[in-house]
Sequence to fold (104 residues):
Amino acid sequence: MNQKELCQGTYSAQQTDNAVTITAEGTHPTTGYKVELDHDPILSFPPQWTLYHIAPVGVTGQIVTHFSVTTQFHAEGTVKEVIIADKTGRHAVQVVQKAGAAAA
Fold:
């Protein structure tokens, strides 16, 4: 099995009440990649994540493939940004504040 490697993507984040959702999107040159956003184990603020992928093993479809991966975490207060590391460096992603379901 192949090892995790840093991936590359574009990022967005939003907070609704106490839930912060982070999304990473991008493309791979073939089918079969596994993509994940891993929370960095160091407790820090703003929260930090790393985007990884695992390359496929064996024969794959030779077609550019879009990916989208989402993760969510609980936050008691307002989170203004999250940090995401990928193969191009560290990215400060602004968190968009959304009205909660109770306010709708």
In short: The chain has one domain: 4-99. Strands lie at 4-6, 10-16, 19-28, 34-39, 48-54, 65-74, 81-86, 89-98.
